[in-house]
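debug: dumping io for the single-chain case to check the tokenizer round-trip. Nothing else runs in this session.
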Amino acid sequence: MAVLKLYRNKLQHNYRHLEQVFKAHKIDYGIVTKLLCGEEKFLREVLDLGVKEVHDSRVSNLKAIKKIAPDVQTVYIKPAPKKSIPDIIKFADVSFETELDIIRLLSAEAVRQQKIHKIIIMIEMGDLREGVMGEELINFYAQVFELPGISVIGLGANFNCLHGVMPTQDKLIQLSLYTQIIEAKFNRKIPWISGGTSVTIPLLFTHQLPKGINHFRVGEALFFGLNLFTGETFEGMHHDVFELSAEIIELTEKPMVPNGIMAENPSGDSYEIDESLYGKKSHRAILDVGLLDINPKFLIMKDEQTVVGASSDMLVIELGKNADKYKVGDTLQFGLRYMGALSLLNSRYISKEVVTDAPG
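debug: decoded output
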């Protein structure tokens, strides 16, 4: 069985680095754990870091987090579905909301459960995923402030999640101004302006983050150390907290050109023959992982290897010049991009393992 490894020392290093950055800028933050898909052993590693606030997009994951660490503040980071409202009130201390009717239902349920449910109202800032339109904010807040059992603790925005719209100084200033307008209009203090995610971190280092932005939600930067503006790893951070290890189940020298009548494969892909490869051979390894587990485009090769293709449960790799050092039963290691790690964590066919120390 292929194994997804989490390296504890690299996770701890990245967390300490981020904690120092946010502390220096007097910013509150929570760790986004939706990548972990509720995997208990990995959740425990994150919670053992000393995290005070955890964000997730699945109620079942928040339930697991509350079971492990009841005192951690849990945040449900998408608008609440109606059927999930009782559990959201039970397991989420905070939720991101954009719909008045849903907030009214959350209010009624919070009263039933004798709780005060905190919300961050998300505003649309151009990426066109969730968010209240700016021109509707005043009326929206006027109605929300009247609801029992609801405490508005923040105004937030998402960037780069759907259409790739990036955060800029101007957009974040606009977010801060919206907050100031609401506070002045209703004589209410809104503690958090939650404009920060992993994609916003570079603005801290270039001194472009407006002073009003005081809350971040961070996942990708913790697990991958990735600067989403440049595609490079942040200085002083690890990009390889996660690693995939897959076993070679066949290793054979084969022709580089398929032989026979060509048609679409089960994935809907069609291949064109490269006539320059006729008569050439390569060493190909079949690994015990496939499309059910990960799209190969999210793998990062660690050697002179290339992906030939994949079926539902097998991955074919061309080993290149270093084929002689491998044999059947050996394992190959791969780095991962975010969506690749997410797929593997969501696969019940992949073993998950915590490794205490890793080289590098």
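debug: round-trip ok. Residues 303 and 322 are 8 Å apart (CA to CA).
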